[in-house]
Every structure is written in structure tokens, then in C-alpha cells.
Design goal:
Length: 352
């Protein structure tokens, strides 16, 4: 039985499915079936575009570590590490920073057994611990400072949606049409926190999963010290329906290709900042501004010096893709949470 058939049977016997429950099941299935990354997959993330991305983030982490006084031990956590490319590049860029690698306890938050094998291969020779959830004792029982990286992690966390219909907000759910196909519908009046006003058809989103994750993270940061860097696509003001599915580098209908397409939703950075209230929040920067502040153009120039003509062309193309306004440069944002003692490289203004 396919995942779509399983979901239809569940709905038939138990009633409509909430969108967050739908996303949980679809995402778990999707990331365990095959490699979704790269040109042969469904999408390409920044670490797969160029080594420069991971190198910049590695140096960013090292700077935070030095600002903390270069502690003898700290947790270096990556959430949603993909193939392990970002961490591998970050570690290579920091190998000459005295004491950094020895102090780092590398922890990868990953649920996919398929991707764990990819990460193990990419990070061969490194001592790595894997955890399935952030509230794992490895993190929660530790007293070490925490430095966390998360590239395109928050967008995969499940969301719930509400739609304004006939004067009230109602939760969007997934049910079956007359022919037994999956379709969106509306549950009775919703008790979810919703905008004060709306017009017919308006859609609002919340992510309890994201809220819970950020609160747990900030509790750790306040207790142990440290910083967390998130890079993702999102917004700071209401954005409507952002749930999307991607397959073969193109967008497809959310309710088609169940378990064969990547489901994501844009990140609400304002909601993230509210959930992170115990921490210091640094205003979102565009990925372009952030990477340029860290010196990615200078790094590209260094790589080009020893490159062949074809390599030079590839480096320039990768740089453009990462920072150009019509590529990933402005769509993606970087936001940082700290325990208060760190001024993260690239950032100056605090709080949304």
C-alpha cells in the first residue's frame, strides 16, 4: 500500500487529517526513501552549491566560540544536516584554529536513516553523535555551551493552517472528495491563535512544532550559553498560504506525489522571535548580506587564484547563486539567537 493509500484509509476511518499530522507522515516517508539533494534529486541546498557556504558558517561558529572564551568543550549541533556537506566544509575551514576541533562535540539532529548513512560517509574520521529529537538527554543533560547551525531546517517543521470563512477562522484539514481523492477542507471553528481580522478566503499559518523547538533551544542557551544560526526562506509579516511541494526542482500540487515530493512552508521570523523571548534575537539579514559580511567574495577570489578556467567559471556561478538578489540572495534570510554574551559576526541590530 502506498503512503497516499494509507492516508486515505486513515481519513476514511478516522476523519479529516490536520495539516501538521499530514506533513509529519509525508516528510518522514520522503527523507527515508532516497537522496533528495543535488541535481538528480528534487532540490539543491546552499551547501551543495559551493564549499564556500559551509566554510563561512564554520568560521562564524569559530568566532562565536572565541567570543565565549574558547571553552575546552562545547556542543556543535547541526539540525537537518542533509548529506553532511555543510558540517564537513565547516570543519575543514576551521581545522587550523587551535583547540576548536578538540573542544567540539559534534551532534547531528537527523531522523532519516538513509541520510545518517550519507552523513557518516561524508564525516568519516570525525566522532559524531546522532540524535532524533532536540530534547535528547545528550543535549538536555549537558552543561556545555551550545553552538547550533540549521540551514533549511525550520521550513520542514509541520505547520497548521486556518482559513477565514463566513466570518470566522476555521482550521484547514485534508479529507476526501466524492471520488476518494485527497482534498483540502475546513474543520469547525478553530481555537487556534488567529489574526484579529480577516476577509473571506484569507489563510494564516502557525507552527507549534517550531515554537516548541525554539523554546527548548532558548532554555538551553540561557542555561549553558551559546548561539544558534538559522538560514531559511520566510517572512516577518503575514504571508498567507505558503505550504508547497517540490519535485524534480519544480513545484507540484501539495496533494499529488505524496511522499515523493519535499513539503515545506515559509518561516514566520516574527513568530520565531516571539518564541525566543528569553534569548537575544538578532534581526534577520538576507543571505546575501550575511555571507558578504563574513567575506564570501574574498573567499571566492582566493579560490579563483588557483583555479582552472572551468573551475573559475563554476566558482563565479556558485557565488552568484548564493548571493544574487534574483537567486538565493534575498529569498533566504539568516537569523541568530544568543544567550546574550555573543555579538554574532555579520550582525549588528538586535530583536525584531
Amino acid at each position: 500500500m502506498t503512503l497516499a493509500e494509507t492516508l486515505k484509509q486513515h481519513i476514511l476511518h478516522n476523519g479529516p487529517l490536520r495539516i501538521d499530522h499530514f506533513m509529519q507522515q509525508v516528510t518522514a516517508h520522503y527523507y527515508n526513501k532516497s537522496d533528495p539533494f543535488g541535481s538528480s534529486g528534487d532540490f539543491i541546498t546552499a551547501p551543495e552549491i559551493s564549499q564556500m557556504f559551509g566554510e563561512m558558517l564554520g568560521l562564524w561558529v569559530a568566532d562565536c566560540w572565541m567570543q565565549m572564551g574558547s571553552p575546552d568543550a562545547f556542543m556543535l549541533v547541526e539540525c537537518g544536516p542533509g548529506r553532511g556537506t555543510l558540517m564537513a566544509d565547516a570543519l575543514r575551514a576551521t581545522k587550523h584554529i587551535r583547540g576548536f576541533h578538540k573542544a567540539a562535540q559534534i551532534i547531528l539532529l537527523e531522523n532519516s536513516n538513509f541520510l545518517k548513512k550519507q552523513q557518516e560517509k561524508r564525516l568519516e574520521g570525525c566522532h559524531v553523535q546522532w540524535i532524533d529529537f532536540f530534547d535528547h538527554p545528550v543535549i538536555q543533560s549537558s552543561t556545555k555551551p551550545l553552538l547550533l547551525l540549521a540551514n533549511e531546517f525550520l521550513d520542514a517543521l509541520p505547520i497548521r493552517q486556518m482559513q477565514f470563512h463566513q466570518g470566522e477562522w476555521r482550521e484547514r484539514v485534508i479529507g476526501l472528495d466524492q471520488a476518494g481523492n485527497l482534498q483540502f477542507g475546513l474543520a469547525p471553528a478553530s481555537l487556534l491563535p488567529a489574526p484579529a481580522q480577516g476577509k473571506e478566503g484569507d489563510i494564516a499559518e502557525i507552527s507549534p512544532a517550531q515554537h516548541s523547538f525554539i523554546q527548548s533551544l532558548c532554555a538551553c542557551l540561557k542555561k549553558q550559553g551559546g548561539a544558534a544560526l538559522f538560514i531559511d526562506y520566510g517572512y516577518t509579516q503575514g504571508h498567507g498560504d505558503t505550504l508547497q511541494a517540490m519535485k524534480n526542482h519544480g513545484y507540484v500540487d501539495v496533494l499529488s506525489h505524496i511522499g515523493e515530493a519535499d513539503l515545506t512552508a515559509h518561516v514566520d521570523f516574527s513568530a520565531l522571535a516571539r518564541a525566543a523571548e528569553p534569548c537575544t534575537v538578532f534581526n534577520p539579514l538576507t543571505q546575501s548580506a550575511f555571507l558578504q559580511a563574513l567575506g564570501i567574495k574574498e573567499r571566492a577570489a582566493m579560490l579563483i587564484k588557483n583555479a582552472t578556467a572551468s573551475q573559475k567559471k563554476a566558482i563565479e556561478a556558485a557565488l552568484t547563486r548564493l548571493i544574487a538578489p534574483d537567486q538565493m540572495g534575498t529569498l533566504f534570510k539568516a537569523i541568530v539567537l544568543t544567550s546574550g554574551s555573543i555579538i554574532p559576526a555579520g550582525f549588528s541590530k538586535q530583536t525584531l
